[in-house]
Amino acid sequence: MAKIEQVAVVGGTHGNEFSGIYLLKKWNKRPEYLEREGLTIHTLFANTKAHEENKRYIDCDLNRQFISTSLADNSLTNYEQSRAKAINAELGPKGDAKSDFIIDLHNTTSNMGPTLILLQSDLFNRQLGAYVLAKMPEAVIVFEDQVSLEEHYFLASVAAQGVIVEIGPQPQSVVRQDVLDYMEAMTQHILDFVVLFNKDEVTSLPESYQAYRYIESLKLPEDEHGERIGMVHKNVQDQDFKVLTKGDPIFTLFDGGEICYQGDYEAYPHFINEAAYYDNNLAMSLAKKVSMLTK
Amino acid sequence: MAKIEQVAVVGGTHGNEFSGIYLLKKWNKRPEYLEREGLTIHTLFANTKAHEENKRYIDCDLNRQFISTSLADNSLTNYEQSRAKAINAELGPKGDAKSDFIIDLHNTTSNMGPTLILLQSDLFNRQLGAYVLAKMPEAVIVFEDQVSLEEHYFLASVAAQGVIVEIGPQPQSVVRQDVLDYMEAMTQHILDFVVLFNKDEVTSLPESYQAYRYIESLKLPEDEHGERIGMVHKNVQDQDFKVLTKGDPIFTLFDGGEICYQGDYEAYPHFINEAAYYDNNLAMSLAKKVSMLTK
After folding, report:
1. What ipTM, to 2 d.p.?
2. Which letter does DSSP use for residue B46 in this model?
3. Size of interface A-B (CB pairs under 8 A)
4. Mind listing the pLDDT tens digit of every residue in chain A (295 residues)?
5. Is B257 on the interface with A (CB under 8 A)?
6. Domain definitions of chain B by residue range
7. How far apart are the first and last CA of chain B?
């Protein structure tokens, strides 16, 4: 892999996820927090208009607009679809990007703690996960490598390497100090790793480590008319990355009934009851636990 | 005090506080959950339009529009100002209301647990607080009796008696089962109390109990241009109703500094880092602990 030189640090991709937005403000006043040997850092506030309206987005979710075919489709012209093309021009273009690496900063209302989402499982990403975990033992490493980078719809997929820093729990439109501190620390560890990786000086990593791999998403219970008839079970609420096995209750119906997990694998739920996912009636994501090698 | 016969149970006064909205749906299908001897129950979904847009409000906070002078001011015509007049016609009019009692259901992003906010400290409210606390020991009773009912701007002030059920922590636009369960249980206890009070059968209350009285609100730190320069200190985050004494850090500045509490009384913060209060740059409310008598 070629050296990483051009790094984009992006906040405010969702306008009501405040940590990245406040950190960008801080770092723009004090760029020394991001500066690293051999790296040129570019910061980007991705959706200022949504932030001004204190919403996740104006017309549609910006962080779902970066599939290569969508970027090439000039009939997609709403606010976020247009903004995605502008960001692709600024940081990309995807497939031949001027940015070598993108760090996109997000919050979740779910109790996920400091989570690093990696889009590929090549040596760079596997070692990055191990490095962050070594520096921040409370971190959680999630691989969302179920599709190719070209098919990924995340902003971070515009560069050949991109990651998502996802910290919660934080309500929408709030700044929590603990969450802000985690986000800043994780971003710094990622940048430190890039410098070491460039110099081929990554050392002292364990042979392998425990991570998670995204498998599927579960919907909230609906009736035949598509009306929501239940909610996340109180046993599951806030229990992100705690195992679910077949027969565990996962939903409570408003009429008092329960629905149990019926999957045939040990599932690690995350993004549990994330506010923004109600748009698509999603209740949680499920992952499998995996052992990742650092060689 | 005359008997309470006409009771209004209100949800969705803020469109992104989901618990009351989902409970109204449930109760409209199963009215037996609210039915009580001698009471006529009227339910009201106060701001459906804001809920459809998944926002607290369209133009301004509906729960600040019920001061008598505002209700009488026909020059106030935006969406919530108009909606307040319609609700006042439906449940009121304030000062001579057809509703005898209003229960208004709210959520907060703050870690306040199941809180009952009482607008007056007459015998009915003092005994109601004691009764709810006896039935639900984890409840918190807060008196916001700093102004007369006429000057109160809350929806619940339209009737001669009105209370706010305020349960958190719950992010905006989310349903948590624990919060929903608390709200339903507290509402039922309140209705049970009203039946007993009507029949003069309230018994077995302690002579006095511990409650809180609202004193003032604190703003988030701003610079001379009105720009926010700090956040709630991590020591205070989630510590609703835990005492603050002079010298305790309450804000962390984005540049790393700290601001300490300078008040000359033992303050009990609540609504700490409530998302909706950022509009007015409010950081938290402060209360004093008080002993309330039940005679």
Report:
1. 0.95
2. T
3. 76
4. 889 999 999 999 999 999 999 999 999 999 999 999 999 999 999 999 999 999 999 999 999 999 999 999 999 999 999 999 999 999 999 999 999 999 999 999 999 999 999 999 999 999 999 999 999 999 999 999 999 999 999 999 999 999 999 999 999 999 999 999 999 999 999 999 999 999 999 999 999 999 999 999 999 999 999 999 999 999 999 999 999 999 999 999 999 999 999 999 999 999 999 999 999 999 999 999 999 999 9
5. no
6. 6-205, 210-293
7. 14
- Of the partner residues A171, A231, A276, the one whose CB lies closest to the CB of residue B177: A231
Q: Is B221 on the interface with A (CB under 8 A)?
A: no
Residues in chain A: 295
Instruction: Specify the fold of A210-293.
Output: N-terminal domain of TfIIb (2.20.25)
Which residues have CB under 8 Å from A257's CB, separation 6+? A230
Determine whether the interchain pair B172/A26 forms a contact, defined as Cβ–Cβ distance below 8 Å.
no
Which chain B residues are closer than 8 Å to A273 by Cβ?
A: 174-176
Q: Tell me how far apart the alpha carbons of residues A270 and A239 are, in angstroms, rounded to a whole number.
A: 8
Q: For the domain made up of B6-205, give the CATH fold.
A: Aminopeptidase (3.40.630)
d(CA A112, CA A269): 10
